[in-house]
Every structure is written in C-alpha cells, then in structure tokens.
UniProtKB/TrEMBL annotation, chains A, B:
Residues 51-70 bind DNA. PANTHER family: HTH-TYPE TRANSCRIPTIONAL DUAL REGULATOR CECR, HTH-TYPE TRANSCRIPTIONAL REGULATOR RUTR. It comes from Rhodovulum visakhapatnamense. It comes from the Bacteria. This is TetR family transcriptional regulator. Coiled coil: none annotated. Signal peptide: none annotated.
Length: 226, 226
DNA sequence: GCTTTATCGAACCGGTCGGTTCGATTAAAT
DNA sequence: ATTTAATCGAACCGACCGGTTCGATAAAGC
C-alpha cells in the first residue's frame, strides 16, 4: 500500500511556487477518501453505531492520519453532513424558472424532488439524521433547512408569482407549497423511511404520484379548473 | 429502598390459590417499571447510545433483575416498541365510524391523527425507529404497519364506501387516503421530525392545517365542490 | 418462628470504544 | 544523495460497553 502524501491535486509551497506535496491534513483527495469511508459507516450503523476504527478501515486510511484531518468523531460527522446536505439538494431552484406552464413546472419540480428524496441514499441520510436529532438538534435543523425548507421556499416564491399573475387562487402560498411537496410523495416516502418499502420507487410510480399531486393541487388552487 | 417482590397485582401460586408474590421476572408492575426506564433512555439516546446500566438506574432496578425480565438489550427494545406501537395508535378506527357527514369525519380523524403524530413523544419514537431501520428493517416495517398503514387502511375503506355511495369521485382511493394523511400534517410533521420545530404544534395550528387539508381534498375528489 | 426466594448491588468478564502516541516508512524537495 | 515530513500502523490509554455471577437482603408464605 502506497504511503506518503498522495499527489492528486496541486498546491503552493512556502516558496510560492507550485509543488506537489500537501501539508499534513490538507490533501483534499485524502479528505474525500476519509469522508467516503465515514459515510459508508455512518449510514449503515448510525452515529453511535459507527466506530472510528471501522471508518479508518473502510476509508483505507490509518487512524493517525484520520485524526490529522478531523478533530474527533463529531467533527467528522458534521463535516460529512455539511458536504452531503448541499450535494443532494443542489440545482433544485433552477427547475422553477423559465416560462413553462405552471402545471409543467410543478410536474418537473415534483418529479425531481420526489425521486430524489425517495432514493436509497437520501433515505439513509434522512434516517441517520433523524436518529440523532434529539442530541444534535441544530444539525438536524440545518439539514432540514438545506433540504425541505429550501425547496419549500423556492416553490413558495413561484406560487406567489403565479397568484400575482392571476393564474392561481392560493389563499396561503406557504401552506400550499408545503401541501404540494407532501402530495408528490404521498404514500411512498414515509413507507421508505420506516423500511416498509426497501427499494427505490420505479420512475413510472413517481410520475403517477406527481401527476396526481399536480391534479389535486390544481383542483384546489387553480383558477380555471381542469 | 424496598426489596423483594412488589405487590401490585395478584397471581396464582402453584397451589392454585391466589397469592401475592410473583415468580421471578413475572411482576407486571416491575416489568412496566423497567420498560419505562428503558423508554426514557432509548428515546433520548437511541438504541446504540442507550446503555443498559443507565436503563437500570433510570428504572430503579438492579441489573440482575433486569436480565431476569429481559434476555438482552434487543429483547428489551423490541418489547418496548411493541408496547408503544399499539399504545399510540389505539382507537383511531373508531373515528371513521358513525354517520357524520364526510367532511366532519375527515376533520375529526385528521385532527386526531395530526396532533398525535406531531407530539413530542411520538416524534421521538419515530426518530428512534427511523434511526435503526437500516439494521432492523422488520422492526421499522412493523412499526409503520401499526401506525401509518393501519390508519391509512381505515381511511381507505371509508373512501371506498363513500365512493360506492356516490358521494365521492375518487379514481384511486388508495392514493387519495395517503394524500389526505400527508395533507393534514403538511409543513409541520417533517419540520418536527428533523428538529426544525421543537415544540408541539398548538391546537389551532392543527385545526387550520386539517381544515385546509379537508378543503383541498374535497376540491379534488368531492362530487359537489364547495 | 423458620424457610423460601425475588430482588439487590457490586464485582467481574472479555471486548470495544474514542482518542493518543511514536517510531518506521517512503516519497517529495533540494 | 541527502534532508524533510506526511503518512502509516500498531500499541496503548482509560473508560465504558453488554452481559454474567453470586452472596447479601428482606419480604412473603408457612
């Protein structure tokens, strides 16, 4: 097994010139490698169930090195959550822009959202986070904000625009956007979270669920029903 | 601190007569006492985070005694989940019977459901269960069945009856009942689960949310819109 | 009274935990 | 070729884990 600093990215030496060796604990590739191993462990065993020794093994990194990159177990976990938090929910806002008809926008947004949050990987994250919310409430809240609340806010803004344009009759856009989000994954997400359903929903199931969600939503809030 | 078998329930002795002393590990009051302490620990720390020593302390029971009543940590946890599972969701079906108008039934059912599953205690249970679903999927599935799925099925049956009576235009009652359930807690439950909101919702918020849910539901599926 | 026995409580088991240390290794920099 | 230092890896720390054992205690049954 190779030792010494791995050379996968360039950096600057004290002399100011480009060099190929990283300072201790500053090789981003090694950092990712550790995070990857940690993710496997944390998602499988939860925060308490995961062991630092196992994380080292899974990451292919010595314990000494790991503790150069991260202060302790909590530090590692927090860094990992922060990374995944934004990786999962990047690019959602773009789906609500453009000048498609409202139904199409909702459908596109709903499909992306529903399929994303019902994925095995994301479901595992949600379980892991939920499991430690009691002892780390701020971490859970931040995860929620980056995920549910951000998409919620984006949708909320769209609904207000549509209302202002007279195409929607929404007394409470805040509530309506929350309702739409829940509708898209009705009957699926919760069953996934609690392990009643153990495989990703098929794309056509997502499509059907979102189509029904759009239909119900428009029936309730559309100005011209149909 | 008193020792010896506590005398809170009657039992039968080998002779067949009523006696006041329980066989080892068969005092239901002591059993409850253990379960109570275990609940506190498991809900606060999760399955892995909870320690058997702490559970003993919290329950006011010696470790030796605890292991007379339960085989091991998992056995205790499973017994506890089984007890709570049915304690939480008892009596929901009754709310859907009688001859009230559909809207009233939905409202009553929705309010009870929403306020129940957003309670601190129930939220903590959901977090704890979700946290170990990966390693104990059957336990999570059974929890889901007793909770979400049972209420879901009850509602489903009601919708089919209403459709048969011509008072509802539901193409897919299965989906519609899931949608209604999600609508009642839209924007609340998820925020509670992830610790974004840390207190029980006020009754009037529940009422407003359920009222909106009924409205949306009836707009989408009611035969006479209004 | 005496016997029975459920419970207590503390010591103990082997194992693993998170975290630390430090000499050996090895590759980059010069 | 030599120096430098990031990483390795194994041993080690004290603490605690889940689980077991067993003599002491005290209440119930006779």
């Amino acid at each position: 097994m190779p030792q010494g600093a791995s050379r996968t990215d360039s950096d600057t030496c004290p002399g100011g010139r480009v060099c190929r060796r990283h300072a201790a604990g500053e090789d981003p590739a090694k950092r990712d490698q550790i995070l990857q191993g940690a993710m496997k462990e944390f998602l499988e065993k939860g925060f308490d169930g995961a062991s630092m020794n196992e994380i080292c093994r899974a990451a292919g990194v010595s314990k000494g090195t790991l503790y150069v990159y991260f202060e302790d177990k909590l530090d590692l976990f927090v860094a990992l959550v922060a990374r995944e938090r934004q990786a999962i929910f990047a690019g959602f806002d773009a789906l609500l822009k453009g000048d498609l008809p409202l139904e199409d926008k909702l459908t596109r947004f709903g499909q992306r959202l529903a399929s994303t949050i019902c994925t095995d990987h994301v479901i595992q994250w949600q379980r892991t986070i939920a499991g430690i919310v009691d002892r780390m409430p701020e971490l859970g809240a931040r995860f929620y904000e980056a995920a549910a609340q951000r998409t919620h806010d984006d949708l909320n803004a769209l609904l207000r625009r549509e209302r202002a344009a007279g195409r929607l009759d929404v007394p409470d856009p805040e509530r309506a956007s929350a309702q739409f989000i829940e509708l898209t994954v009705a009957g699926i997400w919760r069953a996934r979270l609690f392990g009643k359903r153990r495989t990703d929903p098929e794309p056509d199931e997502i499509e059907a669920s979102v189509a029904s969600a759009v239909q119900v939503f428009m029936a309730a809030y559309g100005r011209t029903s149909g």
